[in-house]
Amino acid sequence: MSAKTTIVTGITGQDGQMAARLLLEKGYRVIGTSRSGRGPTGLDVPVVAWDLIDPSVIEGLLQTEQPQELYNFAAFSSGAGMYDRPLEIGDINGLAVGRILEAIRAASPHTRFAQASSSELFGLAQQTPQNESTPFRPRSPYGAAKLYAHAMIDIYRERYGVFACSAILYNHESPLRGPAFVTRKIARAAAEAKVGRLERLSLGNLEARRDWGYAGDSVEAMWRMLQAEAPADYVVATGRTHSVRDLCACAFGHVGLDYRSFVTEDPDAFRAAEPVEIVGDAGKAARVLGWLPKVGFEEMVRMMVHAELRAIEDQGAPTR
Ligand code: GDP
Questions:
Q1: How confident is the model at residue 79 (pLDDT cuts 50, 70, 90)?
Q2: Does 206 lie in the same domain as 80?
């Protein structure tokens, strides 16, 4: 039997790369898309240039490839920038998902579709933990755009029978995380401190809490969603929160240092707090998909710090 074909949009980002690696391991033929048409270093898959504003490219690709699966990771990411450029975010994180669904319906209706959705759907939630039935109250253009995408997935599933699923992903990290995210910032700083290159690390609110999981586990959940009997939406989360302070203690602890000697808190960098804790109940994913996160918080932080140490060593810095 020939290999299954899958399209992974946003192949240069953390999730796109993690998903592509997982799918290659599983024997899929992977085709990536990115805005520039370039792929990430070290990942040997064909990459098609696609700007999500333009529906013709994805429709043509679906038409010719007739892939079994499509994973959508192409988006503006969350974080401090999720209030910037609200209309572009609406277009890329929201409308473009409608374009993909419409292209699937028109050109390749058997293609199964997995969307990287977000806990930002819950935003100003009133209940904790959140599950698939918790009302959505997005607080940012990012969350509003993801909500539009989420609603369209439900509509295409119900009205057109497309096998489309939304993974409501809580924070998920890895050594491939973008440098502006707090996990990566802290991992990098801990590694720099270890080699004597860090004086101070200025952060926002150290008491901010997140449900941080491992990105490899999140993409595994998305793959399982597309192997299920029926399409559905799932919360993908660890069900546990840690504070930014815990993250600092863990990362610096891995290199034998005390974060308190380096970290300062900058009140100007504080973000608005959520009314209730944003933490996911992934019971449905466990029950229906048999999915459980494999990599815990400490292990994930250790992986990130070690990757930063290796990167510093590769640049030729002396280690202590
Ligand atoms: P987000 O949850 O998608 O916005 O991911 P981030 O990694 O950007 O932020 C996670 C949490 O860490 C948020 O509650 C931030 O307010 C908090 N945080 C505290 N200090 C910092 C910082 O210096 N940088 C970032 N990015 N986040 C910080």
A1: confident
A2: no
